């Protein structure tokens, strides 16, 4: 098995844990991501240039989201951040997790992603959500949201969140969306701080085509998973739909509800 390894260089614990993982895998075929390779005094490659079977990420959810924008290889997440909802194991289970990984004793959990286009320009696919929001603090915008070319939402708000089921436990949850089981093929569309309380999130089929337009165009920003941003004048055609590829995660069988209870319901 050929493995890739990346860690969040902005988290001191992630570098420490990443070094520990690398030492434990010293007899395996491991490719280091360029950033941590430099810190370790080794040669490395950008994630997008890796030819690997599994990418091990050390950090939090942000590390995983950035990695997914650069690879279609399965992700094995080791939490060295804070919440780590998308990670599979904590630091104290590293030996156990690596043993199962090397033995092939795991499953692959596939999750839907969103394709995002601004004026026909393809952005990174979204694992959690794509957001179109005002470019100016405390300046709301008037949005029209179409689902399969039918007007579904006409709202004045700070922005619009278009989320996958996986993203329903992230930004979308913070604005009042329901938590959606990742086995449900759906897209959640939610206004951010709408002017009218009656403006509520809606859930549409995953195969829908969602179009977000700004009425009376004014500057906005399109953000993918909190990682990629694109400034907008406000007159762009912004489209979201099911991505052709899925995100793949190494799983040891933990359930969505068990993780939700541990990470969200009981997290301090």
Automatic annotation (TrEMBL):
Catalytic activity from the UniProt record: NAD(+) + ATP = ADP + NADP(+) + H(+)
Cross-referenced SUPFAM superfamilies: NAD kinase/diacylglycerol kinase-like (SSF111331)
Positions annotated to bind NAD(+): 61-62, 66, 128-129, 139, 156, 158, 193, 227
GO molecular function: ATP binding; metal ion binding; NAD+ kinase activity
Top-rank lineage group of the source organism: Archaea
Alphabetical keyword list: ATP-binding, Cytoplasm, Kinase, NAD, NADP, Nucleotide-binding, Transferase
Active-site residues, record numbering mapped to chain: 61
UniProt xrefs under Pfam families: NAD_kinase, NAD_kinase_C
Keyword Nucleotide-binding belongs to the record: yes
Annotated Gene Ontology cellular component terms: cytoplasm
Cofactor(s) for this UniProt protein: a divalent metal cation
Locations listed in the record: Cytoplasm
Enzyme class: transferase
Predominant subcellular localization, coarse grouping: cytoplasm
InterPro entries: ATP-NAD_kinase_N (IPR017438), ATP-NAD_kinase_PpnK-typ_C (IPR017437), NAD/diacylglycerol_kinase_sf (IPR016064), NADK (IPR002504)
EC number: 2.7.1.23
PANTHER family: BIFUNCTIONAL NADP PHOSPHATASE_NAD KINASE, NAD KINASE
Name the UniProt record assigns to this protein: NAD kinase
Source organism per UniProt: Candidatus Methanomassiliicoccus intestinalis
Organism phylogeny: Archaea, Methanobacteriati, Thermoplasmatota, Thermoplasmata, Methanomassiliicoccales
């Amino acid at each position: 098995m050929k493995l890739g390894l990346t860690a969040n260089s902005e988290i001191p614990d992630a570098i420490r844990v990443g070094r520990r993982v690398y030492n434990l895998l010293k007899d395996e075929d491991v490719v280091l991501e360029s950033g941590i390779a430099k810190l370790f005094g080794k040669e490395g490659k950008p994630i997008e240039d890796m030819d690997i079977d599994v990418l091990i990420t050390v950090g939090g959810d942000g590390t995983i989201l950035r990695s997914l924008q650069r690879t279609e290889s399965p992700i094995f997440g080791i939490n060295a951040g804070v919440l780590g909802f998308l990670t599979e194991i904590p630091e104290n289970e590293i030996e156990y997790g690596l043993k199962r990984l090397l033995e092939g004793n795991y499953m692959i959990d596939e999750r839907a992603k969103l394709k995002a286009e601004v004026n026909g320009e393809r952005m990174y696919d979204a694992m959690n959500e794509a957001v179109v929001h005002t470019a100016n603090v405390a300046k709301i915008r008037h949005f029209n949201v179409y689902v399969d070319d039918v007007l579904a939402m006409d709202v004045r708000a700070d922005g619009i969140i278009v989320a996958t089921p996986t993203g329903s436990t992230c930004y979308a949850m913070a604005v009042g969306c329901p938590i959606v089981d990742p086995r449900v093929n759906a897209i959640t569309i939610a206004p951010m701080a709408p002017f009218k309380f009656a403006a509520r999130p809606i859930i549409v089929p995953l195969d829908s085509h969602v179009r977000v337009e700004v009425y009376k165009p004014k500057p906005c920003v399109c953000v993918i998973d909190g990682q990629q941003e694109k400034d907008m004048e406000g007159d762009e055609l912004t489209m979201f739909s099911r991505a052709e590829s899925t995100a793949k995660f190494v799983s040891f069988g933990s359930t969505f509800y068990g993780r939700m209870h541990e990470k969200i319901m009981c997290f301090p």
